[in-house]
Amino acid sequence: MSKFLERCKGNKDSVGAYAVQCGECSKWRFIPTKEEFESIRHNFIENPWYCNKKPGVTCDDPADLEYDNTRIWVFDKPNIPKAPPNTERMLIMRRDCSKMDAHYIMPNGKKVRSGVEVEKFLEAYPEYKGKISPSSFSFTVPKVMDERSPRKFEAKASPSSNKRLKISTKKE
DNA sequence: GCCACCGGTGGC
DNA sequence: GCCACCGGTGGC
């Protein structure tokens, strides 16, 4: 169950940092760029990630970060296709941190929010047909770890839930 | 008039 | 119960 994390931030793409968990030692390692992260993610199941894929790093080195509540963690599904060339996959955190929304910025700056909208886009701009494959879009959003969400926390705390409480005012 | 944002829901 | 998707709208 190795996973990825991302973190809540501002308004643009809400992800503040990317990390992967090593398939061997389970330590978390930062991945410097979105592109690199997407590239690791797109075939993660067949191609798990290990510390030694990071230059000069081995499992003996201390983790880059720990899974704690100093930041908002969001876990991606593995094997999401890379964003097609000249498009960007955006993940936007809701204000209450309850969930994220996914969309793509197309090469001409247009925004699409679903597979149907991709199809409509290709109808509207046929010059992209054949260049952009509808199957390489995924609108699957990462899962927000729920103790991060004030709203869900309240909802959970009100009825008799014996959940561990872990508040932690997040954010910066 | 647009668009970022959020709520609702249908299908699984 | 979850989550992908879409409609509505409030603020600009």
Automatic annotation (TrEMBL):
Q: Give the signal sequence positions.
A: none
Q: Pfam families annotated for this entry? A: MBD, zf-CW
Any GO CC annotation of this UniProt entry? nucleus
Protein name in the entry: Methyl-CpG-binding domain-containing protein 4-like
Q: Which GO terms describe its molecular function?
A: DNA binding; zinc ion binding
Domain MBD residue range list: 73-144
SUPFAM superfamilies given in the database record: DNA-binding domain
Q: Where is this region: Disordered?
A: 148-172
Gene name per UniProt: LOC120273097
Q: Which CDD domains match?
A: MeCP2_MBD (cd01396)
- Where does the protein end up? Nucleus
* Regions annotated as coiled coil: none
Keyword list, A-Z = DNA-binding, Metal-binding, Nucleus, Transcription, Transcription regulation, Zinc, Zinc-finger
Q: Which InterPro entries does the record match to this protein? A: DNA-bd_dom_sf, Methyl_CpG_DNA-bd, Znf_CW
Renumbered to this chain, the Basic residues biased-composition regions fall at 163-172
Q: What is its main location?
A: nucleus
Q: Which organism is it from?
A: Dioscorea cayennensis subsp. rotundata (White Guinea yam)
Q: Which residues form the CW-type domain?
A: 12-67
